[in-house]
Each structure stands twice: as structure tokens, then as C-alpha cells.
Design a protein that fits this description.
By secondary structure, this protein is of the alpha/beta class. 36% of the residues lie in helices and 30% in strands. The protein has a five-stranded mixed beta sheet. The chain has a four-stranded mixed beta sheet with strand order 6-5-4-8.
Length: 254
Amino acid sequence: MWILAPWLIIIIITIIATILSHPKIKGLIGERRVRKQLRRLPEENYKILNDITLKEKKGTSQIDHMVISPYGIFVIETKNYKGWIHGREDSECWVQTFYKHKTKFRNPIKQNWSHIYAIKENLPEYKDLPYYPVIVFAGKGKLKNLDVTTDVISPDALFETIMRHRGPRKLNDNEIGEIFTTLTGASMKDKQTKRNHVSRIKWNVKMKKMKERALICPQCGEQLIRRIDKSGEFYGCSNFPRCQYKTKLHLESK
């Protein structure tokens, strides 16, 4: 029997810790927790779709998870963040605070509704079907100061959240199977499509930042002007209140 040298043990532990801290690995761990919760749903009338990409009018929409149930369709967007998470239902961006560093990211509720619109485009015969957006923060982030009505939860609360939305049936078993088959067939599975989807998102983010730097509202195209409220200075759309876009991304130096 041989014993590993202490220095070798330290190296192995360091390598494992580095691997586990990688964003992609942490994301996979979070997704695994979500899928574990989804597997608890009754198989006979809850159909699950994971990681599907659907065509829509403006391009493609990548959906993390979807549950087709007798009571409607649950559309689940997963996020993997650390630190404190702040946001409102109707804001364009949310904020991740990690120590003194703040980072903005797209409002996941609005992002998830764009997925719902893509699903609706692929299911035109089910116009009155209820949709339930669910945002799951699977990382170590703490949800702080959220002003939302949408379900924004941790993975461990996913099963109970879905089961809570029960009532009169909206779909029979045949309709559930039909929707499952339709969306499975519509899903774009080739790797190039997924790469194109990621590239399109990066391009949209780049264009949004370029417009903000030019003081152009990314949402409606009107001018961004400097304003002040209780939270301090920001740039808001001159088309307010029709357009409520605002940002603190690039306040000019004084």
C-alpha cells in the first residue's frame, strides 16, 4: 500500500477545485439539479423538453427547459450567478453584486417571455393556452430586493412551484402528446444552428452597447438623455413614458 505525498494531494485538490469552479462546470451542476427536480414530475401527464432551439420570426430562441402539463406550459430559464441578485419585473436589466463589483445582465423574466413568444409561434392552434414563466437561479447567488410577480426560485423549489399551478385541465393527454411531438420536431438540433444562436445573442449585446454609447435608445431608437432620480444619475429614453428604457452603463465623465 502506497501513500500519496502531501504536496501531490494539495495539487490534486487544487486541480479539482479549479475544474469545479469553472463557469461551464458550475452551469452543468446547476442544470443537473434542475433536471433532478423535473424528473420528480408524474411521467404520465407531464412531458419534459430540455435544451431546445426553436425558429421564430427574428431568428432562433434557445429554451433551457419546458414542461407540458395538463394545466399549461412551464417555460424555465436557468441562471448561474454568485453574489447578490437585484431586479424588478419590468426593468431592462438586473444587477449582480459581488463584493463591491456590480454587473448588469438582461432581465431573465423578459428574456423568458421572448422564449414563450417563440413557442407560441410554433403552436398557433393553441392561442389560449396558459404559459408559466419560471426563473431558476442554480448558482450560489442570493436573491435580494426582487420586486417580481413571476416565480424566481432556487432549483430545490422547482417541483413544488410547478405542482402549485394546478386547477382545471387545459389539455388532455392526446393534446399534451401532440404538443410534445410538434415542439420536438420543430427543435433545431444541429450544432451550427446553436453556434449561430450564440453568435446572434453576442451581436445583439454588442449593438445594444454601441447604441447606448451613441445615446440612442436600444429599445425604440429615440435619444437617451441624462436624468436624476432618488438612486442617482442615469440615462433615460426621451420617449418616456411610452418607452421606459434607462441605463447607468456609460455615464460620461464630468
